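Hey, can you fold this?
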Amino acid sequence: MDNTRLESDPAAASPCPDIERITSPTIGFPSILTPGSKLSIDMCVEQGMPTDASGWSVQISRGVRRITIGHETTVDEGTYYYDTIQLPVSGVVNYDRFKYRVDARIPQDSQTDLYDLRVEVDGKEFTQENAVQFIPQFPSEPRFCVMGDPHIGFEGYPCIDVPNIDEISIFARSIEEVNQDRPDFVMIMGDLVDWSCPDNWNDLRNLLKLFQVPVFTLMGNHDYYWDNWWVGYPPMLPAPVRSDPVALRYYFRHINPSPRYCFDYGPLHAVCLDSGDDAVLSAVEAYGSGLTDDDMQWLESNLEGRPESFIFMHHPATRAGCDNSLKRHANTGCITKNRREFMVLCSKLDVAAVFNGHEHKVEYWAEGGVDYHTTPSITRSGERNGYRMVRLTAAGGYDAEVVWHPDER
């Protein structure tokens, strides 16, 4: 199975200008492969690069990362590499101006591990950490971790009496525990940063480097925020003032190039969506802008013939304890556009479960034969911080359990 059958949607390509880089796989959009399979690498580099395989070098490396955690946490980017493997390049295609696809073959005797990817061409070197994993085979009962809302860069909201926290230390402690538990992969469902700036994104990326299992990321409404001066007053400002797709430039360039994507992992079919930025419907309530009509068409095409699929997005579609009728704007915090249509489609196509974050609490609701799970924030829950561990079962169902932060049990 090549690249975990990871499929992004070209129609939902990131809006950022091109810079030279590895476009895919990345630290938030990794490739998981078995020995002997093909690794496809998408690159953005200058025109005129060689299309002969001999002009390119592809290496993967295993390393040990260091982190120092204190009252003011710092992440040490230093990495000591202890194993580097040269992969044979089997083909290169220049498919669109500055865009190249480089294919390399995974050796049959590859060691199971998570690797950094390094590509060299024309004297230039490009690296993506934790971008490739080798596994001997895909499990029949995959087990994965679902995390929500790290909010890296959170500085407190004095205007509404919300104090600052050491969110980096809190997140790093959970990463340490997840590494010991060794799920097959981790899904982080948005609000990766509290607001978009290079420092916050750099801190997030350095934290993602500490995972010893592959990580898939999604966007949340806070990731759209271009500044933090207004944070704490979100309902009082119109959405265009508070958010800007340009704020996502670093995310698309360096963490995950795809707003929406799907992948298969053994029997698991996962569909990952961007539920949008803020849509303010009153002076005191904020909702997610929701799914576009194009999102819905793409979603339906990726769910047809795939019963028991799992969907991941930042905002909930429905919430426990609220008005759970299929009204378009029933619940605070839920998606607005295509909310009803999304729930009807999930029921019609026998989706197993929808996982979301955003609300910073544990919630569960069943509607139309579909399970809806809200996962707490890993750093900023109103209740205890935590995450979910999910395992598919041989009988075709799944188990989902909440794991509370190790310092809050």
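Oh, and this one too while you're at it.
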Amino acid sequence: MRYDIVVVGAGPAGIMAAKAAARETSVLLIDENLPGHDPPACAEGVGDAVLRSLGIPEKYGWIENRVHNIKVVSPYGNSRILKMKGLTALMLNRPKFEADLAAQAVAAGADYWYEHQVTDWFHVNGDNVTTTSDLRTGERQEVHSAVVIDCSGLSGIIAKKAGLHRKLKASDIGVCAQVRLSSPDMDKDMIELWFGEANWAPRGYCWIFPKRDYANVGIGIQGGQGENAAVDLYAFINSRFHQFECRDLVRACLPLAPPLEEVTTEKGIMVAGDAARFCIATTGAGIGMSLWSGRMAGAIASSYISKGYPLNNYDRVCREEIIPKLKRAYALKERVTKSDPAMQRFYYMLLPGFYLHKLLPRTIEKYGARNMRFA
């Protein structure tokens, strides 16, 4: 079986890659899960400017809340409320959001194999061969393609086999847990970020993202802290809320590492989203990065197949647009977590305001619609 492009992983990056590439090339999208699997291991927040910059129209069915304020609480109990001037944080129903985008990718011409696991990849005679297994029947198939776009998340299945991944140190992995929480003690127009509390989030933070009928309440800590994220999450919840009900505990890991320097190879491998470590190391935010990098990878792969444009244009664009920003975020994460308590207090209380009101508007003004305000 042969396609021009195989996309591994049907999260935000993979779906956008498949949708962008399917207009002019034959595309196969592969994922282990059913479309729009629930619950997602994600806070489900994204900036409205992200969707506008990518031409994704907002739909009521998958937008569950609009938030305009962020409360930032330092490890010392000080707090600031930041008004998101000109910005709106959209609280998604991510399963519906992804299912809708996946349907658009299929409508554009992509084939979608869900409940299929990628078991191997190799390059032979100028061809990429991706081996899959149907999780329902056990049937195995080899799929040949000129290009493979790895959007498989932190595991980076193809990137690892292609030699693009290096082993991460424990502190460059975020260990997360999250629940859906209902409580009267919650402001529906306020995201809350509780940073670096020694009792429950050492070298990390807890978050509250309010949705229509509940909030995503979670915790993310650096790996190697010797803590159980779920236990620490419930400790935070008991401290923050007087009355509450919890359900749907999920656990996940995400990259808090420097971005990959190379995201294409001469063999036709491209890497996007979390697989490329395109995640903001200070917060773990990644939906915007995944949507952007997936669409860019798909469009460039399609141009490579249909028009003969260089595949490494993707490397160039990523190095110009987002890799420097991600490197700065990683350097800041390292500086904050290794600094003395007094300096940590300065970082936690001042930098979120600078990020929202100075850095983001300058980025948008400089790069325009090609960039986004990160979730």
